[in-house]
Give the backbone structure.
Amino acid sequence: MRDLLAITKALADENRLRALGLLRGRELCLCQIIEVLGLAPSTVSKHMSILHQARLVESRKEGRWAYFRLADDDAPQEARQALGFVLGNLKQNKQAKADQQQLKAVLKMEPEELCRKQANCQC
Amino acid sequence: MRDLLAITKALADENRLRALGLLRGRELCLCQIIEVLGLAPSTVSKHMSILHQARLVESRKEGRWAYFRLADDDAPQEARQALGFVLGNLKQNKQAKADQQQLKAVLKMEPEELCRKQANCQC
DNA sequence: TCTATATTTCGTTATGTGGCGAAATAACGT
DNA sequence: ACGTTATTTCGCCACATAACGAAATATAGA
């Protein structure tokens, strides 16, 4: 029951559902999720940790960056079923679509932002 | 998003999951659910109302009694999918099995209790 | 080594939620 | 009409949770 409850509780928050929607089909860095959700880094980090504990997302650290992706085949069946359920229902969702749009912009702009911050260039 | 969230929030409570498990395959009266869950009537009534608002259960009033059953084919697809997910995972669940056992006892005893209360007999 | 950056942890605060009992409501039986 | 019973609504309290900023941690680069 604890596993199932961990999953349903993880899914019972709008911002966590949005994060799952963003991860559909691609791995993302925490900072990119932060950008789209528009929440404080600490808040998003906590959200991703809750999703991870429920085994709904996998995470990986590469240097300073934390990457997240949807749970894959070696995740527990409950988690995969839950993902199938929510992702299917997010497809027609207005907020999820808007997030996808904004994610596109973030994926395009992020290099520029990196450039500005790290190299002081004028791109 | 509101509908989906209503569903995931409704599922994010252990006692509501237990109630759904009890309803598998049969319609139950509120008082029977109260008996198995071991919670105050007002609490269980609230739980069932939350499940109903999420369209996960149907309800019907007959005289003084309120009956609940799992959402059927004319419920929204999201609700039916969600039910499929949780009921499937409750099947192997220890608590859910124990609840089923206790439900059997309640279904057997309830008439006796009714008898004692309503007719002062000694059955 | 020192600094800057990405993330996490911690402490605090505001809000949400589950629990109960008491009171209100509705419907049955006398 | 009246009392009884099943349920719901309400008010309250305890606890959980989401949000933030500040501080701690970890790592890359100068």
